[in-house]
Amino acid sequence: MKSRFPKLLAGAVAVLSMGSLAALAEEGGHHGPEIPRETWSFGGFTGQFDRAQLQRGFQVYKDVCSSCHALHRIAFRNLVQPGGPEFPEASVRALAAAWPNQITDGPNDEGKMFERPPLLSDPIRGPYHNEQEARAAQNGAYPPDLSLMAKARGVERNPSWWVHPFLMIGDIIKTYSEGGADYLHALLIGYTDPPAGVELVDGKFYNNAFPGHQIAMPPPLSEGVVTYQDGTPGTVENYSRDVAAFLSWAGDPSLNQRKRIGWQVMLYLLVTTVLLYIGKKRIWSAMKH
C-alpha cells in the first residue's frame, strides 16, 4: 500500500501557501501604486503604432529626454524604417549630423580616438560617455538608457490573491502587453506635492506612480515645453502619452510587421485547414467503412 504522506504534505503546503497569499493581500503594505490602464493604438491583436504619435513622441524625447537619456539600441536609420516614425531620410541625415552627442571613433592614423558626428548607422547617444560620468553629473543618480524602458517596466494590480489567475487569463485573451506604456504615462503625469506629513529626502521629488513615491528625476514635462510641429496642443498629458508610445516602439520596432505577418499566417492556416478538410472528404467519401 502506497504511503499517503506525500499527498498530505502537498495538501498542507497548498493550504499554507493560500493562507500566506491571503495574508499578503490583506496587508496591502507591500503593494506598489495602482496604475490605470490606458487605451493605445498599438494594443490588442490588431493594434498598430500611430506614425504621427511616434513622430511627436520622438520630438519630446529629442527636446526634453535626450538631455539626460540615451537610446543606444535605436539607430538613426530606425527613424526612417517602416513601422516607426518614418521620417524622411534626408531629414534624419541632417538630424544625425547636428546631434549634439557625437560618436567616439578611431583610432585614427595617429592611433588616437576622436569624436565625429553620427551617421544613419550609429545609435542615438546620450550626453554621457559612461555611467560614472552620468552619476557625477546627476548627484549620484543614474539616468538609464530608454531603449527598453517600456519593456522593463509594467503595472501592478492588487486584488485578492484568488483573483490573480482570472486577471492573468484575461490579459492573455486580450494580449495585454502595454504595461510599460501605462507605467511611463502615469509616471510622467504623476508629479505632485507630497501629502501632509510626508517628508522628502533631499534631492527627491514626490510622484504618485513611482514605487516608494520618491524619485530623483525632477519633473521633466511642463505645459508648452515642446511645440508640436503638427499643431497638437502642448500639454503634459499629450507629451507623456506620445513619448510613452515612442518608447514602446523603441522597445519593439517590429511590432507592426510582426502583427501583420501573424494575421497572414493565421489566414494561411485557415485556408490550408479548409483545403485539407475538403481533400479528406473527397478522398474518403468513396471508401466503404
Model description:
- β2 and β3 form a beta hairpin.
- The chain is globular.
- The protein is built from nine helices and six strands, in the order ααβαβββααααββαα.
- α2 packs across α8 and α7 runs antiparallel to α8.
- It is mainly alpha-helical.
Estimate what percentage of residues fall within beta strands.
5-15%
Radius of gyration over all CA atoms, rounded: 26 Å
Major beta sheet, strand line-up: 1-4
Main sheet, how many strands, which sense, barrel?
2 strands, antiparallel
Helices and strands, in order, run as: HHEHEEEHHHHEEHH
Helix content: 40-55%
| CATH class type of the domain at 26-70 and 126-252 | Mainly Alpha
- The class by helix and strand makeup works out as mainly alpha
Spans with pLDDT under 50 lasting ≥5 residues? 8-30
CATH architecture label name of the domain at 26-70 and 126-252: Orthogonal Bundle
Structural shape: globular
Total strands? 6
Mean pLDDT: 87
Number of helical stretches of at least 4 residues: 9
**CATH topology type of the domain at 26-70 and 126-252:** Cytochrome Bc1 Complex, Chain D, domain 2
CATH superfamily of the domain at 26-70 and 126-252: Cytochrome c-like domain
